């Protein structure tokens, strides 16, 4: 999914410490700049052994700082000026040694020094400069009790720890300690800056088409790509919610930190959603659920028998998942949002569905104009009236929808 200049106006101080994952820092810088951020790089002496300040300067357009005695900074105090100018400090890679020094509050090089000197005011949160760490090290170093102790201490002191991931390591071993990839770190930073409007909430999303088998090789489905639902799952997660995504057959990557349950048919989607619903505060039904399924799915492929007789397909109605969830008893019923994908008379049909499915909000969109695309236009229909959300990328619309939902849902008990 495109990054939409999501970091526009953000100034990121990117710290590099010694580790082979420094090779990913160049890519990360490009991702941050492409997303609209300005990036100031600070490197430790060990980091300079893995990648040169020349590369990082060329990618950011700003000279790199490495030395606490650098006279270029105002009053000769780089450790004061650099963090105060930043919206966030991201140390990627963060080595075991760097995290150990951070945990001890040491100030033996510019990067450690500026992390210590960053504003952490507990009185005025707006002046706080957050510190995010992307650890990268050999798996034995990562799992060592000393490292785990230091990471826990750094986190207790306010650092946000991103990853590490599990997988193949530069040393040839396999395990936990790989730095997250550049695009993952970019998305973590984008999510970090989103307002936490759904903090402490649980959001359930259904997405994609369903596939109703006729026989082992054929079925009934539709053009839904799942992109809108996946964007809503991502936006809700970015807003601080715990998100469960029940997805029909689509080829889309799971948004970070979202729990995904894959299903194929409408009945399977129903059977996956129903037990989950009572544990969630909000249910957003974006799935384009097939209304009917073949009464019998043949176990074997239906063959032409030479008679040119066309097989008759008997259909039965699928359960209405949204309407079923919306009828759960109070206390078990999440706040429900339905979607209406229509080809004509959008608002009229959306309003009909609002009443028919007894939900507080229906989001209308023109199905044929949006299926498979990255852009959409939405109209929100509720008891108070209609509100159009201007055409735009699905992720931008999803974030607006999350804001609308956050304003409407009842306060947490
Ligand atoms: N929906 C559902 N289960 C179904 C059918 C629809 O949960 N069996 C949900 C969709 O996820 C969507 C809303 O109901 O949030 C409206 O879906 P839509 O297909 O537009 O409406 P239908 O109820 O199927 O009505 P129609 O096909 O007549 O437009």
Q: Please mark out the parts with pLDDT under 50 across 5 or more consecutive residues, or reply none.
A: none
CATH T-level fold name of the largest domain: Rossmann fold
Residue share in β-strands: 15-25%
Strands ordered across the widest β-sheet: 12-11-8-13-16-17-18-19
CATH superfamily of the largest domain: CoaB-like
The CATH architecture name of the largest domain reads 3-Layer(aba) Sandwich
| Tally of DSSP β-strands | 19
Q: How many structural units, i.e. domains?
A: 2
Quickly count the helices: 15
Report the CATH C-level class of the largest domain. Answer: Alpha Beta
Radius of gyration: 25 Å
Q: Quick check: average pLDDT?
A: 94
Q: Give the helix proportion (percent range).
A: 25-40%
Bound molecules: cytidine-5'-triphosphate
Kindly report how far apart the N and C termini lie: 35 Å
Please describe the biggest sheet, giving its number of strands, its sense, and whether it closes into a barrel. 8 strands, mixed
Structural class: alpha/beta
Question: What is the 3D shape?
Answer: elongated
């Amino acid at each position: 999914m495109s990054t939409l200049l999501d970091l526009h106006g953000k100034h990121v101080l990117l710290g590099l410490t010694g580790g082979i994952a420094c090779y990913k820092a160049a890519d990360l810088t490009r991702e941050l700049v492409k997303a609209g951020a300005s990036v100031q790089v600070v490197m430790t002496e060990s980091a300079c052994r893995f990648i040169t300040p020349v590369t990082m300067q060329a990618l950011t357009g700003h000279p790199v700082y490495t030395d606490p005695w650098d006279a270029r900074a105002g009053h000769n105090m780089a450790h004061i000026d650099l963090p105060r100018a930043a919206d966030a400090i991201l140390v990627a890679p963060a080595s075991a040694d760097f995290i150990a020094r951070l945990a001890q509050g040491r100030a033996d090089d510019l990067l450690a020094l500026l992390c210590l000197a960053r504003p952490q005011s507990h009185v005025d949160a707006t002046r706080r400069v957050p510190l995010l760490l992307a650890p990268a090290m050999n798996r034995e170093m990562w799992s060592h009790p000393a490292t785990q102790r230091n990471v826990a201490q750094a986190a207790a002191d306010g650092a946000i720890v991103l990853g590490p991931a599990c997988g193949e390591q530069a040393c040839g071993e396999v395990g936990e300690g790989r730095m997250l990839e550049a695009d993952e770190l970019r998305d973590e930073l984008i999510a970090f800056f989103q307002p936490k409007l759904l903090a402490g909430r649980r959001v359930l999303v259904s997405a994609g088409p369903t596939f109703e088998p006729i026989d082992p090789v054929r079925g009934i489905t539709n053009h839904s790509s799942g992109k809108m639902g996946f964007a809503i799952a991502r936006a809700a997660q970015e807003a601080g919610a715990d998100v469960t995504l029940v997805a029909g057959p689509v080829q889309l990557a799971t948004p970070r930190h979202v729990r995904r349950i894959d299903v194929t048919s409408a009945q399977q989607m129903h059977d996956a959603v129903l037990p989950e619903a009572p544990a969630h505060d909000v249910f957003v039904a974006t799935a384009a659920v097939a209304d009917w399924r073949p009464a019998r799915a043949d176990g074997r492929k239906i063959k032409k028998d030479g008679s040119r007789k066309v097989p008759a397909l008997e259909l039965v109605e699928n359960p209405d998942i949204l309407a079923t969830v919306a009828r759960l008893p109070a206390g078990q019923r999440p706040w429900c949002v339905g979607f209406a994908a229509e080809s004509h008379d959008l608002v009229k049909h959306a309003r009909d569905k609002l009443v028919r499915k007894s939900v507080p909000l229906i989001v209308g969109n023109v199905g044929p104009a949006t299926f498979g695309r990255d852009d959409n236009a939405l109209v929100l229909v509720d008891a108070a009236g209609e509100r159009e959300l201007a055409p735009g990328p699905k992720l931008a619309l999803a974030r607006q929808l999350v804001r609308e939902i956050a304003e409407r849902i009842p306060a947490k008990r």
